[in-house]
User: What shape does this take?
Amino acid sequence: MSEMVPDYITPAVRAVIGAVSPPQLATHPVEPSEIRRFHQAVMDHAPRYWDEAAAARYGGVVAPMGFPVHAHRRAEDQEDPLAAMDRPDFDGVDRALRPGLPEVVVPLKRLMNGGYEYELFRHARPGERIVLRSRYADIYQRNGRTGPIVFVVIEDSYETETGERLLLSVNTMILR
Amino acid sequence: MLKVETREPPVRFFEDFREGQDLPSVTRGPMLVGHQVRWAGACDNYESEFHHDEYIAKAQGLPGIILSGPLMASWLLTIVKDWMGRDARLVRFADQNRGSTMPRDLAHFHGKVKRTYEDAGRAYIELECSITNQRGEVTTPGSALVEMPRRGAGA
Assistant: This one.
């Protein structure tokens, strides 16, 4: 028995394809303490992250290459994401997938990270403030055996404040 | 207490690799909720309750808490960096979160040299890499492109 599969790529969803965020300046410059927490979390114990002598060939201590993707922190006055759980209409999924981008209004309940493609230019350094620009490159639906799946392809550009490129990322988020 | 070994990976050269070569597999785990919590803290990202609350994970249809895909990708990126040596330059990296990693799972990291080539005087290695679990399921297939130093080319 076949069932009608809803088309989640509505005009409202189609309208956000191509949306570009304003530049999102990281809340604070890259800090040695957060570099430490990050390299410990990813179990990368190379001394280039804290030892000036080991980092001399980079011109000083650096952050792990993938760090910029995870460097945007909540500002002091920004809404507490955990407080969203108190909203009666909140279903547990935040569909504004990047700061400065509109929601992808697809009422599927599970949000998963499908993976990344990185183009890497250089390490971020302590004291640099990372600027993120994001774009919904594509949003499309596939109907699999387990039901409809909506893919949201997001291009993210990470630069320094002076416009030096650190990392480009293509991230596929999945709603199902 | 055992100290963590903190050292840069040794320098490796383009000439040290050949197409089809398997890179030394690395195993991490068993995974703990603590690994996930530490990652959430490092990223200041607590928005997905299913990464730390088993009740909510199960309510969303998951078998339990799952570790973050970007954490697994970041571990894979770290292993690629260590395989290719101190002076390699990572140009591209990609991963897919194909299967879940859960607390108490093992993560085996595998790599193979897919292609070695030169372009405009620079030497590159393309890798296939992946994470498999203790059941042999590929949870995180990936790939990387790395620019390598040449032996005898000077610092």
Summary: The domain at 11-175 of chain A is CATH 3.10.129.10 (Thiol Ester Dehydrase; Chain A). The two ends of chain A are 21 Å apart (CA to CA). The helical segments of chain A are 11-16, 32-41. Chain A has a mean pLDDT of 94.
